[in-house]
Write a structure and sequence with these properties.
single chain, three-stranded antiparallel beta sheet, alpha+beta
């Protein structure tokens, strides 16, 4: 599966700065998801958009429908972001500052 970091369809979200450092949210793009999106769009009856005479309301209705199908077809995946020196297999008894000091020592002497 191909993972993309597009963020255009979720608008502006107020998230605390520390959450952004822990997780990244990405859409998953692959052939199966593309086919699912195409099927959802093809099966949608677009006649209800023409019911409104106001162009702004028509666009808003179109956008909400498109967004709904996009969210169904391309699921979101949360990835955990590791610290710079965080180990893949963390040892909870080693404090972060001690782990950084060990890494610094290893860079100097090896």
């Amino acid at each position: 599966a191909v993972v993309s970091t597009q963020s255009g369809h979720y608008g502006r979200v107020n998230i605390h700065w520390f959450i952004l450092k822990i997780f990244t949210v990405t859409y998953i793009f692959n052939e199966a998801n593309h086919a699912k999106f195409k099927e959802l769009i093809d099966n949608e009856s677009w006649e209800f958009i023409a019911d409104d005479e106001d162009a702004d309301k028509q666009y808003e209705t179109f956008y909400k429908t498109y967004q709904k199908h996009y969210d169904q077809a391309y699921p979101l995946k949360c990835n955990r972001v590791r610290r710079k020196f965080e180990r893949a297999n963390p040892k909870p008894w080693i404090l972060p500052w001690l782990e950084a000091a060990c890494n610094r020592k290893n860079l100097l002497y090896f």
